[in-house]
Specification:
Blueprint (H helix, E strand, L loop, with lengths): L4 H27 L3 E7 L20 E4 L4 E8 L26 E7 L4 E6 L12 E6 L1
Parallel strand pairs: 1-3, 2-6
Antiparallel strand pairs: 3-4, 5-6
Bound molecules: copper (II) ion.
């Protein structure tokens, strides 16, 4: 054996072990990912509700999440007024009082019930505030 051969062998072993450990760590990370839904908050007026021009309100007004999964909803308020968010049938953490203009908030919950559940804005954002609701399906 030449002088450097043990060092070379050790480096090859470390590189191999390192690759395997890295892949396993990545797979664990990928599996731990929450099921995530993106939601945009916008007043119904912004889409010109009366003229039936779409674009306002929640986008999407309807979405589906898998039953039994830990779920995250990422809510982005793209306006100059505040909005709120409530999903009364589930315990969302952290609870949201207000999502200020331009803010992004993330709530988490476990989708442990099957069915169709309402969600809504909880801040008086416009005259069309009461139309600012939607439906989440868990299946
Ligand atoms: Cu509102």
């Amino acid at each position: 054996m030449k002088k450097n051969e043990p060092v070379a062998a050790l480096l090859i072993i470390l590189a191999t072990v390192g690759t395997v450990v890295g892949i396993l760590a990545y797979e664990k990370y990928a599996r731990s990912g929450l099921y995530t839904v993106e939601l945009i908050a916008r007043s119904p007026l912004n889409g010109n509700w009366l003229a039936r021009i779409p674009g306002g309100g929640w986008q999407s007004r309807k979405f589906t999440v898998p039953y039994g999964e830990e779920t995250a909803i990422r809510i982005r308020n793209i306006e100059t007024v505040s909005h709120g968010f409530a999903l009364p049938d589930f315990k969302v953490e952290p609870p949201i009082n207000e999502i200020k203009a331009g803010e992004v908030k993330i709530v988490k919950f476990v989708a442990d019930k099957k069915g169709v559940f309402p969600f809504m804005c909880t801040v008086w954002c416009s005259n069309e505030h009461l139309q600012m609701n939607g439906e989440m399906t868990v299946e």
